Amino acid sequence: MEDLPEALREIIKRLPSTSDLNSLSLVSKRLYTVEAELRDAIYVGCGVCPVTVDLASLCSRSWFSGMLQEADVPQVESITTNSFSWSALRLMSCENVRSLEWLEYLGKSGSLEELVVGNCERIRQFDLLRFGSGFMKVQKFEFQNSNFLKDLTLARISTESEIGLCCLLRKCKALGNLSLYYVLGVHDTDMITMAQSNRNLRSISLMLAPQYCEGYDYRTTLTDDSLKALALWCPMLQSVELTFFGCEPDWPDEIGFTQEGLVMLIRSCPIRDLKLGGANIFDDEGMKALSRARFIEALKLINCVAITDAGMHFLARSPSLINLTLELCDGLTDDGVVEVVRARKLSLTIAKCCQISLKAVQGAAKTVHYTDDCPGYKEWMDRCVCGPQV
């Protein structure tokens, strides 16, 4: 390369197409070597069976990106362990790729900026966890097996209207569990799209914080329209967690949902497990409606300051309730809790509720876990402030 004229080097660098590069490499062995050293990408297409050793040699250069179509396991493992500075990797229709050690290796190298996996049936969404810290530098990521995606968790990301989350959720057809933790830019249209496409959804967890919306409203972005979509299109929904962080009790409008919307969802879906955190909009009238829900077996209330003893009394008539957890609910006293646990013989957990005593509930409930500490609330706060460990 040192004795190659500079003008010729510039000509080779400016060749625009792969076919031109291939033609150049056929002219002579010397130009073949030059072209190989200057090429910054390689495409191995369908029906091509390169020798693994040669392919690994090609891929060992710096600033390299590659696309493999219908590659086999040994080839992928070999090229990735020889690719210390890859910037992009696309795997398309590589049905024989199933061993994922190569993905773990790429994640540790930390150089990859683009990762695309399309129609690789043996690579599942959980396998991508092996990429680990490598995702910190990735600027483009596509996983095109969305039709089979069953569990989706997104935490602390920003998404653009029409081209972000809505586009992803439109491709998902088999979601069973959805968790969205402080996703900036999530709107009702995203939830409606998801609900219409995933009628087998069984679990949803939303952690929301207020932000400035259209019209200078300061509230969580999702409204009752999202709850209506879930009620209408998700008849299998059994577990719901709604956490609101940074919403002041004196300003209930900071929560985009209303109590009526929550009650409508509870009545429409066979919800067995309900968790509400910081739900300042949910009061005694909401508890009255909740007591009529046929399916709810487990109820967890964290820092729900609008609920009083009167609301707890309604739970004594709840037909299916067997587990009750109360954390940091300072508006509740012995009078409100004892009646419901005695009537239902509940498994009861009390954490940091200053007006509820162990003496009052012990013997009334089936089992009691009582603590002045609040590990569940601490965990909740950690998730609110730092985000979940995903």
From TrEMBL:
Cellular component GO terms, alphabetical: SCF ubiquitin ligase complex
InterPro entries: F-box_dom (IPR001810), Leu-rich_rpt_Cys-con_subtyp (IPR006553), LRR_dom_sf (IPR032675)
Domain F-box: 3-33
Any one GO biological process: SCF-dependent proteasomal ubiquitin-dependent protein catabolic process
UniProt protein name: F-box domain-containing protein
